[in-house]
Amino acid sequence: MQLQFYKYQGTGNDFVMIDNRRGEFPKNNTKFVSRLCDRKFGIGADGLILLEDSETANFSMIYYNADGNPGSMCGNGARCITHFARFLGIIEAKAKFEAVDGVHHATIEGDVISLKMQDVNNIEVYNHYCYLNTGSPHHVAMVTGLQEYDVFNEGRSLRNSLYGTEGANINFVEAISEDTVNVRTYERGVEDETLSCGTGVTAVALALAETGMTTGNEVSLQTPGGVLKVSYKKTTEGYEDIFLIGPATMVFKGEWE
Ligand SMILES: N[C@@H](CCC[C@H](N)C(=O)O)C(=O)O
C-alpha cells in the first residue's frame, strides 16, 4: 500500500501523522499500525495519528498507540496534529477539533501550541500516589533520584499489578521547586518509557495542586524530551481552564510502499 506520511514530535513524544481525509487508511489493521510504529521494521514512533474531516469542527483526531490499538487522549499528539492542520492549510492560528475525549480548542504561535484539556473533577489521592484521568488514565508518584530511577521496570510493574489489563500510564516525579518538577513516564500501549507524555504532565500538575505541593496556577514540567507548561484554574468542583503548552515540529515526510 502506497501511503504518504509525516513524522512529528512534541517534546520527544513522536508520531506518524497521516492525512486521512479521503478515508483510505486501513483503520482496523492493528498489525499494520504497529508495523508503521516499529522502530526496527517500520518508520518508528510512539503512536500513529490520523487527521480526518469533521462535520462540527476543523478536523478530527484518531490516535493509536505504538502497539496498534486505539489509544485514549494523547496531549502531545494533539499539539502535533494542530501543527499539522496548519501545515495542511486547514487552520491558521486557532483550531477546534474532535478527539476521543471530546472537543478541544488549541492556539498556535510559531511552533508553540497551547491546547485546552477537558475539565478534571476527580483526583484520587492515596498515601504514595494519585490517580486521575486527564483524557488518559494516569498514576502520579513522587520519587527521589529520578534520573537514576528504573522507570521501565517500576512503571511496567505498577501498570500491570495495580491497573490490570486496562492499565494506566505511570508518571514518576521529582520536585525542583514549588512550581518546577522533573517527570518521567512509562506509557501504556507503548509499553516503554517515552520522552514525554502530555496528558501525563497535565496529570502531574493537577496532582501537585490537589496535594498542596504547589499553590500557584501554572507548573513547569521538565521531561527527558523538553519542557512543557500546564496552567489551570482550581474551582470548588475541581480543575478547569487547563492548558498544556509546548512546542511541536514536523521532522520529516516520506512514503510507505
Ligand atoms: N503520549 C500521550 C498519551 C497517550 C495515551 C496513552 N498511551 C494511553 O492510551 O493510555 C500524551 O501525550 O498524552
From TrEMBL:
Q: Which GO terms describe its cellular component?
A: cytosol
Q: What is its main location?
A: cytoplasm
Superkingdom assignment: Bacteria
Cellular compartment(s): Cytoplasm
Q: Which is a GO BP term held by this UniProt record?
A: lysine biosynthetic process via diaminopimelate
Q: Which residues form a coiled coil?
A: none
Q: In which pathway does it act?
A: Amino-acid biosynthesis; L-lysine biosynthesis via DAP pathway; DL-2,6-diaminopimelate from LL-2,6-diaminopimelate: step 1/1
UniProt-listed InterPro entries: DAP_epimerase_AS (IPR018510), DAP_epimerase_DapF (IPR001653)
Q: Does the keyword Isomerase apply?
A: yes
Extract the GO molecular function terms from the UniProt entry: diaminopimelate epimerase activity
User: Which Pfam families does the entry mention?
Assistant: DAP_epimerase
- Active-site feature positions: 74, 74 (proton donor), 197 (proton acceptor)
The UniProt keyword set, sorted, is: Amino-acid biosynthesis, Cytoplasm, Isomerase, Lysine biosynthesis
**Assembly:** Homodimer.
Function, in words: Catalyzes the stereoinversion of LL-2,6-diaminopimelate (L,L-DAP) to meso-diaminopimelate (meso-DAP), a precursor of L-lysine and an essential component of the bacterial peptidoglycan.
Checking NCBIfam families in the record gives: DapF (TIGR00652)
Can you say what this protein is called?
Answer: Diaminopimelate epimerase
> What is the primary gene name for this protein?
dapF
